[in-house]
Amino acid sequence: MSKQVIVVGGGPAGLMAAAAASTHGASVLLIEKGEKLGRKLAISGGGRCNVTNRKPIDELIRYIPGNGRFLYSAFANFNNEDIISFFEELGVALKEEDEGRMFPVTDKAQSVVDALVGKLRREGVRFRLQSPVARLLLEQEQVVGVELENGEKCLAAAVIVAVGGKSVPKTGSTGEGYGWAESVGHTITELYPTEVPLTSDELFIKEKRLQGLSLRGVELAVLNHKGKKLVTHRGDMIFTHFGISGPIALRCSQFVVKEQKKRPSPVRITLDWVPDISLTTLQQEWESRLHKESKRAIRNVLKPLLPERGLLYLLERADVDPDVTYANLSKKKWLSFCQLVKAFPLDISGTLPLERAFITGGGVHLKEINPSTLESKQMEGLYFCGEILDIHGYTGGYNITAAFATGFSAGKHAAESGMV
For residue 117, how many other CB atoms are within 10 A of its CB? Predict the structure, then answer.
């Protein structure tokens, strides 16, 4: 008789857990409270689904700063190369883009969802959609199934909880899994938003002076209260009506949150508009350009070097008349302008709320989870995978990789443990 396994949650971790459990011999019931499977997958990567990232494992771990080292055991079972092979064997051709990001050739996330769901159907996985779970069923210190909100009881030898965190609630991630975990003795570490836009009360932000200005290849640094750099990220960003967003702003967000936990006050970040050259080089090369075109207004000479809206605002902040010529340019103001280009200060008041974040920080305490099997150390037959765990990475395929890897390990071991 096949072992009965219940997977709760139809996101990336849950779908992979169901696939792994079924291919390893279990009879699987996948329970999802929504009307569709793979809702978060379907909108990931801007609707293209960044399936994984092809960086070497050690580097991959570094891009999962929220307890990424916990994943070494899961990656020993199923790593990023295995994920690529898995989908290609399902007929989903993948392509590698910048920074090792892997996308379906179709550029459609739905093709990834359809391939996964199709595999589950072929494996005989049963589905219960629009079936919210109310609680875990326990018997003699062991999980024996779940009870649905309608009172129906579904029994199984193992239950895999893959219901996500509290970010992007429209996909069904509303945090009910934390209560189930606590009900069997698990600790939930403090929840907080990660990979989330940053807010600022700076006057120029409130006045929307730079709203909509996109910058490419710039560098953001988060400073502590002593002015020491905590982290630096290079890439793209955008000024918004509430602060800043874009890939590097999102990557800085968890460090802002953690710094504000220590001291509830604005956190200073600095923006380097031209990170490939030093302050000294910038001063010399740009001044040489001004000298060669000494009769032209500074705004026109420097226009090719910076976005015009940004240039004009930086000149204003440095108290430099944009129409001044090189001959009439104050050396002190020129230095001030160059310093702003290399370290434009911005006080961050906080972030958008957890519900607006891409990823939830915090979750089920990892000391209470077996890293090899993803089984609870508190309750036999109970497994956790995906975002409900206290694991979080940067955007770029890292979080989905963690979800797939933990989902696979949970499904495989739930199916094989005590198999009859």
Answer: 21
Q: Is 44 in contact with 400 (CB distance < 8 Å)? A: yes
Helix (H, G, I), strand (E, B) or coil at 49: coil
CA distances from 28 to 136, 154, 185, 379, 414 (A): 17, 11, 26, 20, 10
CA-to-CA distance for 153 and 251, rounded, in angstroms? Answer: 42
Per-residue pLDDT tens for 240-290? 999 999 999 999 999 999 999 999 999 999 999 999 999 999 999 999 999
Give the global pTM: 0.92
* Residue 41 burial by Cβ neighbours in a 10 Å radius (0-12, 13-18, 19+): buried
Distance CA 134, CA 33 (A): 10
The values of phi and psi at residue 367, to 5°, are -65, -15
Q: Which residues partner with 364 through β-bridges?
A: 188, 389
Given a contact cutoff of 8 angstroms between Cβ atoms, the answer to whether 124 and 18 are in contact is no
Q: Do residues 172 and 39 touch, judged by C-beta distance below 8 A?
A: yes
CA distances from residue 138 to 60, 135, 342, 380, 382 in whole angstroms, order as listed:
37, 9, 59, 10, 10
Nearest Cα residue to 198 out of 143, 242, 163: 242
Q: How far apart are the first and last CA of the chain?
A: 7
3-state secondary structure of 218: strand
Considering only CA atoms, which of 182, 219, 225 is closest in space to residue 348?
225
Instruction: Report the DSSP pairing between strands 229-239 and 198-199.
Output: unpaired
**The two three-digit tokens of residue 108, written as one number:** 């459609």
